[in-house]
Amino acid sequence: MATSLAGKTAIVTGAGSGINLAFARLLLRNQCNVVFADLALRPEAKEVVDAHASTSSSASRAVFQKTDVRDWQQLEAMFHVAIKEFGGFDIVCPGAGIWEPPFSSFWHPPGSPKSRDSPSSSHYASLEINITHPIRTTQLAIAHFLSIRRSAATSPTTSDPPSNEPLFHIIHVSSIAGQVTPLIAPLYNASKHAVSGFVRTLAPLDAEYGIRVTAVAPGVIDTPMWRENPDKLRLFSDEGGDQWVSADDVAEVMGSLVDGREKVDVVAASASAGGGATGLPSGDSREGWRKVKAEGGLILEVSKGRVRKVEQFMDAGPMGAGNTVSNAKVAYQDIFSMLGSGTWGT
User: Fold this and answer.
1) Tens-digit pLDDT profile for the chain (346 aa)?
2) Are 230 and 186 in contact (CB under 8 A)?
3) Which of 184, 323, 336 has its CA nearest to residue 240?
């Protein structure tokens, strides 16, 4: 990992577990301070925060800010905490997300027994978390970054940074669900398509303002969101050849998108079609890998031993190990049973 992360500060929502916790750990290892913004910390996350408290001898610090990402005032508060504790921030990751739980699901309409979405509330909680929160967080981050740019432009003692290294990074967590459309989770699929499109829309901010907005699109990741969700876990089948992707592998790719390097490693198109390299790239030029320009709008798919650039047009779609759930037909049958009951949605 490039040393350009040292001395910087990141805000990571959802850092209490899963991919975002793995990313926060990676940042801290590379001497980057982190604000953990989440509703709560799992024990393993609390251990990380405690190990990087202000009283520790660590080269980087971590602070926890309790945050319900549906509440815009709480989103603003996490930015204030970063400024108070660290004097500002350089990296923002609005990574918190949920996989269409029964309490806010298309297949459990508002007012149905399992739903917590009220018919009178005019919103879905899952969309507030998965779409509205990353959009609002990005707005707040851009406003802050622009204010710093303006201040730097008027300061006689501050020079502009090198044009090939952006000042600031906003990295989103999309998904292979932003490319495919399984029936199982319509709201989740829609949210990840939205995140990917949102990231691409903001691509020009990189060249114009030094604000680089990128995303990762993970496959089937070994996290509590999978392991501790029986409805989701039953879709996975060892016998069917399904394979887990490590959250640390995703974090490594996220790190490569925010550490200021000019190019990142991805599987070459020929290798993506089958075969090719195994293992995550480590910066070398092994056969089967190529380098692509690190720039705004870039989305990298992370699967088992593969990092693939997701093209905006004519993309081949997710492929290879770490992108499949062989028991999806079980969930389809449940959905068809509900729809055929004669009472769904009434």
Assistant:
1) 444 899 999 999 999 999 999 999 999 999 999 999 999 999 999 999 999 998 777 789 999 999 999 999 999 999 999 999 999 999 999 999 999 899 999 999 999 999 999 999 999 999 999 999 999 999 999 999 999 988 877 766 555 544 544 589 999 999 999 999 999 999 999 999 999 999 999 999 999 999 999 999 999 999 888 888 888 888 998 888 889 999 999 999 999 999 988 999 898 654 444 433 333 443 334 457 899 999 999 999 999 999 999 999 999 999 889 998 889 999 999 999 999 999 998 7
2) no
3) 323
Alpha-carbon gap, residue 311 to 179, rounded angstroms:
10
| Residue pair 181/143 in contact by the 8 Å Cβ criterion | no
Give residue 268's Cα distance to chain centre: 23
CA atoms of 89 and 170, how far apart (whole Å): 11
CA torsion angle for 38, 42, 43, 46 (degrees, to 10)?
A: -10
DSSP alpha helix (H) spans, the chain: 18-29, 43-51, 72-86, 125-127, 133-154, 186-201, 205-209, 224-227, 230-233, 247-258, 269-272, 328-339
Pairing mode, strands 62-66 and 33-38:
parallel
Strand partners, 168: 211
342: left (phi over 0), alpha (psi -120 to 50) or beta: left
Residue found under tokens 């949102």? 198
Backbone angles phi, psi at 301, to 5 degrees: -80, 135
β-bridge mates for residue 221, sequence order: 245
- The C-alpha atoms of residue 1 and residue 62 are separated, in whole angstroms, by 19
Can you tell me whether residue 210 is helix, strand or coil? coil
Instruction: Please tell me the number of Cα atoms within 13 Å of 321 on its side-chain side.
Output: 16
Show the tokens assigned to 203.
């691509």
